[in-house]
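Onboarding guide, step 5: your first structure request.
Type a short instruction followed by the sequence, for example:

Predict the 3D structure of this protein.
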Amino acid sequence: MPRSFPLSRVYQLLEPGPVVLLTTSRRGRHNVMAMSWHMMMEFEPPLIGCIVSGRHLSFETLRRTRECVLAIPEAHLGRQVAGIGNCSGRTKDKFAAFGLTPLPARHVAAPLVAECFANLECRVADARWVDRYNMFVLEVIHAWREPGVKAPRTLHHEGYGRCAVAGERLRLASRAR
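The system replies with structure tokens like these:
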């Protein structure tokens, strides 16, 4: 028989996708934050909705610059991802502190993360929901992917310091192109 589940933990059941690192840059100062509240909104052009807390330095920078990079790490970067998510860029250079390498992007000032298997350069396409929900709609304007990573083992946040690791692939019927 099913039991009641706390509403405060529902997000653990509907985890939206892999943990990403959101990078920003303003006045030559790079920052990176861990983020798991995001969703695909459109295929072409690729649009991604993401929630960034108004308390974060990344929120302020993204709101002002209207551009960022979403870098997708694999599970072997789990300790760095957790560390990035547990400190503030206001007081720490997170790239240096967690041994990550910023690389220049092609279209935005925010850096790519060399250690991540994929990086998505983004611009804010819609900010109408920022004041109400802290939700930015980003358009991916350039995507990078390491060709040698065929089945990435991505992190999926379950809350309270727990992550699941995805990596097993199933082939199911699809209308995909």
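Each response can be followed by summary notes, for example: The chain has one domain: 15-165.
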